[in-house]
Design goal:
Length: about 90
Amino acid sequence: MARKGTGYFDRKGHFFKNAKDATASDIAALLGQIGDGESLAPGIAHLLIERRADIERLFAEHDAMMAEEGVGAQGGKVTDISDKLAKTPARPVG
């Protein structure tokens, strides 16, 4: 007898039994071919998911250091234009 179930699809439309594997497939596709022969990207994708909190913390620290240097997240210089913006009166809440 047929049973109802939940499944997940990656961006290519491939079916996975759990969200972690579907997400890892998308990350591996983003990374592309790594190494000779069979790609290392799927294994790296799983490691990225497992170590997500540490990676996000490192990127937050990186962004803070880049901001101190005056460099934006995309690598371009950040120019402060706040003194050139027109000041508007505050609106009443209501």
